[in-house]
Amino acid sequence: MPPQSTPFIEARTVENPILKWLRTPELGWRYESQQAVIRKYRTDANGICDEREVLLLPILRRKLKELNPGVITDDDRADRIIFQLRAEKDNQEWLRWLRNEKTFQFAPEEQYQTIKVVDYDNIENNDFLATNQFWLEGAGGRRRRTDALLFLNGIPIVNAEAKTTTRDDHIEWREGAKQTGDYLRDVPRLYYSNAFCCGVNELKMFYGVPGVPFHKWHQWRDPAPHQVDRFDEMKCGVFGLLDRGNLLDLLRSFIVFETEDGKTVKKVARYQQFRAANKLVSRALQLGKPRGW
To answer: What is the pTM of this model?
Structure first.
């Protein structure tokens, strides 16, 4: 029997378990194969798949109309917002869109309206889609294929690159993290809207910003609100970091851009900071409540 290829092993031992966990009732993501994604969301009227497009336009168009009733009333208005989003290359500005901080004026006689891209109040009003083997075309026609790619309302926000420890040279999660840096160079549009990326093998999952040094990537060691064996570091990271509620909380409140040595640096909170800040807020909200509440 011929030996299994490394990509096959990575898919079977790392990529597939992550996708399986995401589809559990606890995490609540839906999964569609890349073939289904191409057919339903990436193929135009002529039957051509545009591999340069990273947004799943049918989903995004539908969610813009659903989340902005009375404001985005038809496809034409939705497409005007999509035009703005497709032109946006700055990750910090993309985060403002994702945080519902941007406004738009559809006509001179109309007021500027806040555009809602994500529903933070009702998690079920959002579309959480996981897929894999997502092909993209970069500069010069070079094609890249992601491993697990997570979309929020048709917008790619998390890319997880899987590597296996079963090879003789024991490839680490860092190889997955390094690959996200390669994608940042070759297909940068993939990360215009990115929240963070993950480098993962069978043992560990680290998350961070594509292109930054590895020592700034971290593990998420708290599976809350789920019960997972903390010694299973990879599973613990998936259930804690990619929980839909936690992910929305991170996106809204725990990603910052700071200036260091004249450069803008993106930072994503560690799980200790996330947990401590939320506990402080919870306690503050209960200060005025009667004892025994």
So the answer is: 0.92
